[in-house]
Design goal:
alpha+beta, 5 helices
Length: 174
């Protein structure tokens, strides 16, 4: 296995959800690179139904934290990215969720490769939370808040878990 392939595989295996971050700002160029990686995700007939709202001011990140019941990781994260899906751009109803998930995974892996840590927090399908985000941030009717990504330099390092489970693999039939 080449070093490049090993680095890619290690990035996938070593990405962890981190919930505590150092008090250290993130270079905007790195944020831009992570957003670019998200935009390189596959999407149904290449519709690319994603939009990203970047919160990089402490008071805004804290505001987002207060709006989400499971966003404790934003207490110390210097950046939060809200990933939204545009229903006018999805291939068919329900596809923006799939497409945005692919974009998020690209972003999480890119962040890890760049030495940053992340935590993915879902907004969809909680109607009341989605409505709150839509109203607070004045999202257009066709743009739906989907998830949040906490972004920063982790204050802790999580070990690679053992997740491979052959019992979940089926060939040619159940």
């Amino acid at each position: 296995m080449s070093a490049e392939i090993k680095n890619t595989i290690d990035t996938i295996y070593d990405r962890r959800s981190i919930r505590k971050y150092l008090d250290k700002s993130v270079n905007p160029d790195l944020v831009q690179e992570i957003l670019r990686a998200g935009m390189f995700a596959p999407s149904g007939i290449n519709k690319q139904p994603w939009h990203f709202v970047v919160f990089d001011k402490k008071e805004m990140v804290q505001k987002v934290k207060e709006m989400h019941p499971y966003a404790s990781s934003l207490a110390t994260a210097p950046v939060c990215i809200m990933v939204c899906g545009d229903t006018n751009l999805e291939m068919a109803p329900g596809f923006y969720q799939v497409d945005c998930s692919a974009a998020i995974e690209n972003m999480l892996l890119a962040a890890n490769a760049l030495g940053l840590d992340t935590c993915w927090m879902g907004i969809y399908p909680w109607t009341e939370v989605m409505d709150s985000f839509s109203k607070t941030f004045e999202l257009p009717q066709n743009v739906k808040p989907f998830a949040l990504i906490a972004l920063g330099y982790g204050a802790v390092k999580a070990e690679r878990p053992k997740r491979f489970d052959e019992n979940k693999i089926h060939y040619n039939k159940w």
